[in-house]
User: What shape does this take?
Amino acid sequence: MAAAQRIAQLRAELERHNHAYYVLDAPIIPDAEYDRLFRELQTLESLHPELQTPDSPTRRVGGKVLDGFASVRHAVPMLSIRTETDTEASGATNFDTRVRNALGEHAGEIEYACELKFDGLAINLRYVHGLLVQAATRGDGETGEDVTQNVRTIHCIPLHLNDCHADVLEVRGEVYMSRRDFNRYNEKQRELGLPTLVNPRNGAAGSIRQLDPALAAKRPLSFFAYGLGEVKGWTLPATHGGILDALQSFGMPVCADRAVVRGAKELADFHQHIAHKRDALPFDIDGVVYKVNSLALQKELGFVSREPRWAVAHKYPAEEQLTVLRDIEIQVGRTGKLTPVAKLEPVFVGGTTVSNATLHNEDEIRRKDVHIGDTVIVRRAGDVIPEVVGVLAERRPANAKPFNMPASCPVCGSHVVREEGEADARCTGGLFCAAQRKQAILHFAGRRMMDIEGLGDKLVDQLVDENIIRSLPDLYRLDVATLAALERMAEKSAQNIVAALEKSKQAQLNRFLFALGIRHVGETTAKDLARHFGKLDAIMQAAPEQLLQVPDVGPVVAQSIVDFFAEAHNREVVQQLRELGVHWQEHEGVSDQVLPLSGKTFVLTGTLASMSRDEAKSRLEALGAKVAGSVSKKTDCVVAGTEAGSKLDKAHELNVPVWNEQQLLDELEKQVNRT
Ligand code: IVH
Assistant: This one.
């Protein structure tokens, strides 16, 4: 095949994969295969420089380090919108009333397009004949900065549009950093002892204004389109909703959480609906945006003092607030890790009152220069624990105190060590330390481990503090009388706990292994180990090289398992638990055996009537299947219970086979009979 033809083919294919991965979030091929195609294209392009084009997927990164950004005058000014902060009902009604008053008598019920208000950085993307030629920040609205090089590194932004015949099309939207990318970036920085980002918005803004595009490319950003700038040679749809649909069809990422509604009541409903979803969204939002849907009515409404009368932002409570740091306490985790926790003047942030927040580790406190008594910025976004992200040094009182990590554990008095290259300080007390013991017991009893219902943190505190439980096996020595004698414990609850303990004795090897709390052995590794070895004794006696045979077990994990079982104390714990009746089914290792559903990937969605999702998952896994959290082209089957949602839609979209509950039950039965 001629080079030009192969190059065109590779580009088209890579773009398709890029779109599937970054826009649809449904990858079609493994990363390694993508990399192989990418390298083939790179090689061909370097052999044929005359065939290089600016919109080739290889040309996202590779620009020069700049001295500064050039100014860009916006063809159409980039305006901002008015904000409503009132409760859902009045904020929506205020806007609807203003719109209807401005339109006068003839206005009936108005149709609105509702969107999310993304918390990032506004960007104008200029496409000429479908090709991305320039990207600019908003700046003062009239003039922004040319950040084309950095914007090209954002994978979900198409370098050219599909089937768009406009001469000029400016797409406006928000560049943002997802919470996952933000947390990962910060975790990595923390491990390396480097500065962290305050919030995803600063992450996005800092990265876009980075003069070295190679550095910008290292900070993962995303984009959502929400409007247009200059347009030439394209007939606009009649509505804003129509514009967003068209942009999506051109390959632009447009957020799926959008709706077209009628009247104030439905605006308020949208506000409330999104408020419930806010924590679960993969990115920060600071509100929702309502826009009059009809472009004709938008034109009629026009602008007041540079703000459109046809749009409004309706905000939610902020996810960052200022408060005073009263004290710093040390929390000791299951593995002995000491985490400094900020004790705060209670503050309402991200929808709840927060009085504790993590400070991560000692270095982080130094870097942020946090003193006790300081006014600090607290962030609570999504379901992650609140954190102190910064300090207002100018508000520091004269009596503010610096923080020092204690040299001994505040719970058990053992030495605190910090190993070289490690960011965390650790208590060396092991299970002698009551804090570690409590965490170890809570972990052991967890739902995905031994699943001991009713054994929560309050009870574990009492049991450990009163020295009733000194080690894990003591749990199974508890009786109703001992439990019922505890404060705030009724006879009935005591009986329930003893029954739950009894029930948990019927265990599974993988759950038991996970429950032991071996460092680096998470749920997945525990499953892999159980499947590979089949018997606990085989794992306890395994040499590192045998452990390395298990998929995804590397030297660090292997060594950690060997070290754990080399401790006489840990072997003793296992033996006692077995003597007390904890048991599971053992089998021959399956390392060479192919299970009936090996290699098949399932996704579960909705509610099943006959079993919990966790149970369905473990039954499928026992037959060798992998159970994934999201649907992609690689999914072999989606099992849909009642009230299945977007995963089911995606399955239909990607033509993935869908089973109902009965089909799952039939298959499980059939396969179990075969094994
Ligand atoms: S529309 C003329 N829609 O909020 C209308 N803006 O003041 C222009 N923003 O910094 C804006 N999400 O970057 C619009 N769905 C959305 C938005 C949104 C976030 C930002 C925008 C600007 C500010 C508006």
